[in-house]
Design goal:
Elements: E1 25-26, E2 35-37, E3 40-43, E4 50-51, E5 57-60, E6 74-79, H1 84-88, E7 97-100, E8 106-110, E9 115-120, E10 126-131, E11 136-142, E12 149-154, E13 159-163, E14 170-175, H2 177-180, E15 199-205, E16 211-221, E17 224-237, E18 240-247, E19 256-263, E20 268-274, E21 289-294, E22 299-303, E23 321-324, E24 327-331, E25 337-341, E26 344-348, E27 354-356, E28 359-371, E29 374-383, E30 404-411, E31 414-422, E32 426-433, E33 436-442, E34 454-459, E35 468-473, E36 483-484, E37 490-494, E38 497-499, E39 502-504, E40 508-512
Antiparallel strand pairs: 1-6, 2-3, 3-5, 4-5, 6-40, 7-8, 8-9, 9-10, 11-12, 12-13, 13-14, 15-16, 16-17, 17-18, 19-20, 20-21, 21-22, 23-24, 24-25, 25-26, 27-28, 28-29, 29-30, 30-31, 32-33, 33-34, 34-35, 36-37, 37-40, 38-39
Length: 513
């Protein structure tokens, strides 16, 4: 079974938070030859096109001699500080959020130490930088007009902050602890204690400028584990955030909310629901499932999924969630993808358990999105369900559906496979924009190869052919959150990794084209 998100668990580790280092951009050394990149070519010196930080020029346009699988040119790196101690002491990959501005001119980054940066998305020059105290940045979102940067943090007050992207001064602040409560700050040596604080876990902008915000809190008390979550519809204004609607309407619910999916055309919202609190769950709440609401946050219907016994004792839906019209599409920790319309369900068991060497193995569906008529998802590396006798046993063989990118067309009430990709990469996160998707590549568990780090780009119109359109290497593995600009630039977060009893690599923003 897919491991629970840190919000759901409190696992003390010996580590602390350390200050951030310099943030000056650095350009990689320019290679000599002309290189093909996605949708264009990079030529030495200045020419008609976009001059890059290393002095070469990007010329965009199709070329008859372009290779089937292109490469990328790295525009710049921006150092995000020293995260090696965090990684060395056993902490998870440092949580980091990144987002291009709507016009593609800027890229915003929020780090696990509370640093917020806005940098030029072509040169890497730092426009503004600020540190939010006692905070881990969960999400950064630009307003559709680019005039505001919304930052959701995990902190004692769990703030949602509206910042001016020009200099990052505060325009408005909302303490989500007023909705989901607060808890004691963690001990200095408890890395995962940060995850027991209230948080703005997800922020989405709705048509017209209202914000949909998921306020989440899971913490430990002397009376046991507690949960509190609430979904808010907020209207940003000169006086702050005005609450337009909320679900539940009166108070927080005893659960932990995960991904948000929004269908602006239909005015529907879906949220995945988990629970780690002690005691019985609320009977009317679709724990381990999905709640569908209308734009006023009035519940429309609940979607519950059967437990895949005997290997699993619950269902896990977290980041893999999408909406298309009346259909709810979800990816589960047990390896299933389900599309649900009222009264009709279709299941794709892409990573569901199979038995190998007498041991059940699975490949979780951790990320999924709906892009027009397509459903795109990725499966994880092979895992062993927690329900077996020896969950720490090394899988005897890879699951046939592990580490794949999947694309289905929505046909009738079901899904029809459009493409799939399998390679040697350990996949990390999924970002879709238009008809292109990018997926990160992180450290492999089965060997010590470091030549597979980077970003992979996919053509969503591949229609049965190999959808891989570009391989964009990085020096280190990338975090699962990344972003994609309309013109094809990729913003990735490189993170340190452990190898040979040492920490290698850098914690930095890397932008590629």
């Amino acid at each position: 079974m897919l491991p629970l998100h840190p919000l759901l668990l409190n696992i003390p580790l010996l580590a602390g938070l350390f200050g951030c280092g310099g943030t000056e951009p650095t350009a990689p050394p320019p290679p000599d030859p002309t290189v093909h990149v996605r949708g264009g070519v990079v030529v030495p010196g200045k020419a008609e096109g976009r001059v890059l930080p290393d002095g070469r020029t990007l010329v965009v346009g199709a070329r008859a001699d372009a290779p089937e699988v292109a490469s990328c040119v790295t525009l710049f790196h921006v150092d995000l500080g020293d995260a090696s101690d965090w990684v060395a002491r056993g902490g998870s990959a440092p949580d980091t959020a990144v987002a291009f501005s709507p016009n593609g001119r800027w890229v915003a980054v929020g780090t696990f130490r509370g640093d917020v940066l806005v940098v030029d998305a072509w040169s890497g020059a730092v426009r503004a930088r600020r540190t939010l105290p006692e905070a881990l940045v969960r999400v950064v979102r630009w307003s559709s007009d680019g005039a505001s940067l919304y930052v959701g943090v995990q902190s004692p007050d769990g703030e949602l902050v509206s910042l001016d992207p020009a200099d990052l001064h505060t325009k408005a602040t909302l303490r989500l602890s007023e909705h989901v409560g607060s808890s004691a700050p963690p001990a200095a040596d408890d890395v995962y204690g940060m995850y027991t604080l209230p948080a703005a876990y997800a922020v989405e902008e709705l048509p017209g400028g209202d914000l949909l915000v998921s306020a989440v809190h899971g913490w430990n008390t002397s009376d046991g584990r507690k949960n509190a979550s609430r979904l808010l519809r907020l209207r940003p204004g000169a006086e702050g955030f005005e609450q337009v609607a909320a679900w539940p309407a009166d108070e927080a619910v005893d659960a932990v909310f995960g991904a948000l999916a929004v269908d602006p055309a239909e005015g529907r919202v879906a949220v995945s629901i988990r629970r780690s609190a002690d005691g019985p769950a609320p009977a009317d709440l679709p724990v381990d499932g999905v709640q569908v609401l209308d734009a006023r946050l009035v519940p429309q219907r609940s979607v519950r999924y059967p437990v895949l016994q005997p290997h699993f004792d619950s269902v896990f839906v977290w980041e893999a969630l999408g909406l298309r019209g009346h259909a709810v599409v979800a990816g589960m920790g047990d390896g299933r993808v389900a599309i649900d319309r009222p009264g009709v369900r279709h299941i794709e068991p892409v990573g569901a358990p199979v038995v190998s060497g007498g041991v059940p193995i699975a490949a979780s569906v951790g990320h999924l999105t709906v892009a027009d008529d397509l459903v795109v998802a990725i499966t994880s590396r092979t895992n062993i369900p927690y329900g077996v006798e020896s969950p720490d046993l090394r899988p005897p063989a890879p699951h046939p559906g592990e580490n794949r990118v999947w694309g289905w067309r929505t046909v009738g009430t079901g899904l029809q496979l459009a493409f799939t990709f399998a390679g040697p990469y350990d996949l990390q996160g999924l970002t879709v924009r238009g008809r292109e998707a990018v997926v990160g590549a992180g450290p492999r568990q089965t060997d010590t190869r470091t030549d597979l780090f980077g970003m992979l780009a996919f053509d969503l119109d591949a229609d049965g052919d190999d959808p891989l359109s570009a391989v964009c290497p990085t020096e280190g593995p990338v975090f699962w959150r990344h972003d994609l600009a309309a013109d094809g630039r990729i913003a990735a977060i490189e993170i340190p990794y452990r190898a040979d009893d040492a920490v290698r690599g850098a914690y930095r923003l890397t932008v590629m084209r």
